[in-house]
User: Which sequence fits this backbone?
């Protein structure tokens, strides 16, 4: 069964591809065998990318306020596709438009799963404002003392692989978290302990966070992201699930183990 992995060069997709027997990487710039051109901004690429494909790992268009119309158009063209696994988020509620409208589109497929991961541990290591904070010694958020059960993207990929290949389709939402809910200050303390370099967390107001983020992304998107920090401050992400172990048979990785592994590789 061939799977098109949209975002196959990205954080979760690149970890998913090696777990699949027959994956095709959807990318805007295919350079290797096993890659196919796929660009959400160029609908003419849809047909070629899903040709002969039975399942899709679907990462929605990045930074688009209402991705539902283009995702709906893509799914209507994907006639050979039976199964779709959507990467959504624990922080995105169902809604009539926007990111929250995507689960309903995917549930209309014959076989499906909606992945709702918590915040990625990889935000602390990659090309992300939190990672920049780790490097500078000060992580700035508007999350206060709110806690998040950060999840390793490798654990998301492991759940996605099962959702894509299990003979019986999951046909459910998977709320995916790491094994413990911790605050950004706790994460900073773990990093300090592991690296011997002081990293602290400074919490600012939601409005200040939106202003800071608007330096990097459009103001509307910055306000949305700062609002998610406010939700964390209010306790929205203070929860732990056993989904990774339930689906894959092994427990989710802790933040400490993740960061230790990251240090040993870098
Ligand atoms: N970070 C978090 O804490 C978090 C938490 C929960 C949910 N999420 C969700 O995770 C998703 C991102 O997943 P990820 O982190 O695995 O991906 P990612 O690392 O952000 O990578 C995105 C991929 O999308 C591809 N891409 C960019 N623009 C594209 C376009 N116009 N058409 C087709 N592909 C395009 C890029 O591939 P090419 O450059 O090769 O084209 C890239 O590999 C977002 O929807 C986010 O809401 C994130």
Assistant:
């Amino acid at each position: 069964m061939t799977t098109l992995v949209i975002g196959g060069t990205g954080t979760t997709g690149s970890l998913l591809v090696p777990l699949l027997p027959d994956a095709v990487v959807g990318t805007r710039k295919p350079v290797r065998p096993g890659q196919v051109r796929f660009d959400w901004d160029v609908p003419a690429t849809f047909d070629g990318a899903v040709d002969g494909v039975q399942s899709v790992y679907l990462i929605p268009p990045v930074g688009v306020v209402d991705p539902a119309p283009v995702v709906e158009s893509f799914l209507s063209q994907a006639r050979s596709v039976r199964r779709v696994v959507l990467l959504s988020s624990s922080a995105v509620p169902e809604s009539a438009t926007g990111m929250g409208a995507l689960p309903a589109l995917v549930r209309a497929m014959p076989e499906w799963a909606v992945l709702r991961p918590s915040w990625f541990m990889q935000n602390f290591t990659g090309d992300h404002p939190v990672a920049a904070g780790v490097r500078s010694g000060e992580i700035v958020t508007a999350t206060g003392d709110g806690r998040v059960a950060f999840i390793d993207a490798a654990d998301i990929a492991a759940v996605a692989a099962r959702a894509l290949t299990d003979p019986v389709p999951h046909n459910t939402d998977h709320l995916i978290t790491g094994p413990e809910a911790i605050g950004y200050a706790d994460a900073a303390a773990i990093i300090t302990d592991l690296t011997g370099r002081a990293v602290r967390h400074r919490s600012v107001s939601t409005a200040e966070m939106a202003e800071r983020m608007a330096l990097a992304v459009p103001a509307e998107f910055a306000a949305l992201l700062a609002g998610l920090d406010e939700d964390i401050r209010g306790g929205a992400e203070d929860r732990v699930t056993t989904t990774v172990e339930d689906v894959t048979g092994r427990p989710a990785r802790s933040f400490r183990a993740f960061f230790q592994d990251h240090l040993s590789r870098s």
Remarks:
- The pocket of NAP is lined by residues 7, 9-13, 27-29, 38-41, 59-62, 87, 89, 117, 119-120, 123 (CB under 6 Å).
- The chain has a mean pLDDT of 96.
- The two ends are 35 Å apart (CA to CA).
- The CA atoms of residues 114 and 156 lie 11 Å apart.
